[in-house]
Design goal:
- It is a single chain.
- By secondary structure, this protein is an alpha+beta fold.
- The protein has 3 domains: 105 residues, no CATH class; 83 residues, Helix Hairpins (Orthogonal Bundle), CATH 1.10.287; 150 residues, Histidine kinase-like ATPase, C-terminal domain (Heat Shock Protein 90).
- Helices cover 53% and strands 16% of the residues.
- The longest helix is centred in the first third of the chain and has 57 residues.
- It is rod-shaped, with a radius of gyration of 52 Å.
- The two termini are 58 Å apart.
- About 4% of the residues have low confidence.
Amino acid sequence: MSTRLFLAVLATSALAIVLVGVATRLNFERGFLGYLNDLSTERMAVAQPRLERAYLEHGNWDFLRENPKSWHKMLRPQPEDDLRAQSVTSNILTSDLTGAMLRMSLLDRQKQWVGGFPSTGKEVVQVPIRARGETVGWLTMAPFESVADGGDQRFQQGQAKTTVAIAILALGLSALIAWWVARSLLAPVRRVAAATHRLAAGHHDVRVPVDSQDEVGQLARDFNHLALTLGRNESLRREFMADVSHELRTPLGILKGELEALEDGIMPLNGESVASLQAEVARIGGLVEDLHELALSDAGALSYRQEPLDLVPLLQRAAQAHQGRMHAAGLALNLSRLPPSAMVSGDAARLHQLMDNLFENCRRYTDAPGTVQITLEGTPGEWQLAIEDSAPGVPAAMQDQLFDRFFRVDGSRSRATGGSGLGLAICSNIVQAHGGHITARASALGGVCISVQLPREAPST
């Protein structure tokens, strides 16, 4: 990439140098030719009045025929010439390096050659020679068509050498700039590329220094965020696998021990032993079902049939279904501040599953005698469902972790109550699928308050 960028910048600079050089060369030649022809025109303006005076003096052009010396003398400026009256610059008097004098010729009134340049083309410049009010001849000059025609080849060669030298110097500077740009611009990209190789090899602790605020700096920040997220996900994956293996190992160990006891005759095969085996199998089945539900909700594969529904009767039915189990566990289940109606857009079965998990969580982890308080209140944009229980509570530092899979404040107590540690994680996925939010905070009753916010159903138009 560095080589390609270097060559791209260098090629662009070289092309720009060539184009500028060619344009400058063409513009110089065109302007210089114009300058040479302007000098020649001024030379003609100086020679014209002298030729007119000479014709009046001799009466014809015979004194110039076959007399090159007289012709050149006529063209050469004399001190008596009034250059200011003719608006002619004085620099043409110094020398005739352009060779304009050699390109002039004199024609008579019939435009027959008299002296000077032996041939004239169609594009010649003509100045009339007048005497006593009539045209007695023509002073002509063949214009310059190239710089070489002006006798300034050394000047042209010098200009060409200077142009080449400047082009080489500019190309060298362009190469240095291209090298610096390729090196400085791609250095952070190379760092990101090297870090990506390390990240692909499993080194999630790799980070890229951020030393700019441009797109490359944003790329480095995004890479660091990606590495942090992958590292966190890898850590969660390992913890998840460890927790799953631990949760399955415990009931499987109990099953294995009881089956060995039955084989050895230590424990009799009766209804009580079969019930114990069934309880452990049910525990394993519940854990597998929770894992299956969690996997489906993570992948977005749980079926959701969104339709307008009223939360109030749904909540009342769920509370009535759990009333007996709450009472058996020594807990009082109270519903208060319920509105007449609370319309949302959701799936009734999944929302019922959400309430079942929340009620079951309260039943398992609330000490008897205790209280479970349920309230439903509305705001302009959403409905807020709050489920509070009495002691024990959860430390404030752990409240945000309640929705992590397999998280438990007291692992031994959770296993005793039969919880898998996945119920609140499933609840979080269900709430998010409905466009809502679920949070945990300390309850005024001494336990935990789970708050669920669901958006109101949009009014029909």
